[in-house]
Structures are given as structure tokens and as C-alpha cells.
Description:
Pfam families: BTAD, Trans_reg_C. It comes from Streptomyces vulcanius. The strands form two sheets. This protein has a three-stranded antiparallel beta sheet, with no helix packed on it. Strands 4-6-5 form a three-stranded antiparallel beta sheet. Among the domains are: about 100 residues, Arc Repressor Mutant, subunit A, CATH 1.10.10.10; about 80 residues, Serine Threonine Protein Phosphatase 5, Tetratricopeptide repeat (Alpha Horseshoe). With about 260 residues, it is mainly α. Helix 4 packs antiparallel against helix 5 and helix 9 runs antiparallel to helix 10. The two termini are about 40 Å apart. The protein is elongated.
Amino acid sequence: MMRYRVLGPFSVTVDDKAHTPSAAKVRQVLALMLLRADRVVSLDSIIEELWGDHPPRSAVTTTQTYIYQIRRLLVRAGGGTAHDDQTVRTVPPGYGFRVGPGQLDSWEFEQCVDRAHALLDEGCVDRAAPLLARARSMWTGPVLADVCQGPVLRRHAARLEEKRNLAQELSLTADMRLGRHRELVAELKSLVMANPCDEWLHAQLMIALQRSGRRAEALAAFHDVRRLLNDQLGIQPSGDLRRIHQDILKEDAPAP
């Protein structure tokens, strides 16, 4: 089965054999169609992706050549002929790219996150947690880490990165509700170092430390974030952070 990976370095494989295109602009076009799989990608948006506001006179015919090269690559990878391929379809005003279940990692990722989000809302934390762990494990780096990205790809990649952040937040929330505080401390410390101005992460670290019996460290974590926010942004911690700090001082159990 043909598989496409966009959550990290770009790859196209069939039975673990690589068929990823090497030409930079062909990679861009294929990547864009994959991030918009099962939707119409207009010819204008492909041209914008490749050349921005200054397309050459040959933009339309050159783009059509790239589409032909993608079709030929997919046919060769699948062992068929040009007449067999229905993956890339001409659909005015552009093209559509068809993927099936299990072929595209970003599609699987979004399905996992959406399902887990619904399960969390229903209170089914034990069913949501493994789905979120699976969703997060699909990432091996930034979206299309080795593909040159123009304005259109950057917009779609940013949306996926935001969904990755949501998956991380939901996963941490689920694990906190399941009482996995001790196991989360190391991960939360790492995330706080990578995202020093994210007050929500600081709050989760404080709660995890307090619930792991590390009250002094939880209080120290509050003083660290207060100093950081003041030094870097000239602001004080949010009301939620201050409330958690007060709960820890009173030895109450802060809400996650």
C-alpha cells in the first residue's frame, strides 16, 4: 500500500520502499495536495505556493508538467500504467488528491485527536489517553521538515502544528486526570524549558509536582515563572497560576 508521511520528513513509500520525489518543486506540489487531500486544490493556489506574487509566464504549463510528473511517479510506484491512476484527478478549478484509510499520517493523526477530544468531553479518559499517545507518536519532526515551503504550505503546516499543540494539551490533561503525576514531571519540565512563556504548562508542572509530594519544588516553579514573565514580558502571572500557587501554599489539591 502507498503511504505518505508529512508529520516530519516527507516520504512516499510502497511496502517500505521509498518513492519520494527529489525535485524540489514537485515535492512542494505533492506535499500541498497531500495537506489538502480529498479537497480541490486550485491551480491558482499551487502557482501561489511555487512562485508567490511573481509567477512566470509559463506558470500554468509548468504546473501541469509537475502534476504529470507526480502522476507518473505514483503510477510507477504502484506498478500500473498511466491509465490506471485515479489518485490525482483534474477537478476544476484545479486538482484533487485521493487517499484511503491508513495511507496519510496527518489524516490518521487528526482522526485520533478528534475522537479523543470527544471521548474526553464524554468523561472517557481511559479511552482517550491511548488515542492521544498514538497521535503524538506519529510526529517525527516539524511538518514537512525537509520540504521547501511557500506561503500556502506554511499556512496549512501551521494549522497542523496547532493541532499538534492541542493533542499535547489534551494528552497531558488526560494523564493528569488518570493520576500519572509522577510520570509527567520530567516531560513537563522539558516542555516548560522549550516553551518558557506558556503559563498553562507551568501550571501543569506545579500541579504535578505538588501531587507527587514535591511541594517545595512546586512553589519554586511558581517563583521561576513569575520571575521569567516579569523579566521577559513585564507582566505578572495569570490569575489561574496565582490561584494554584495559593492552593499549594494552603496544601490544597489544585485542580488540573
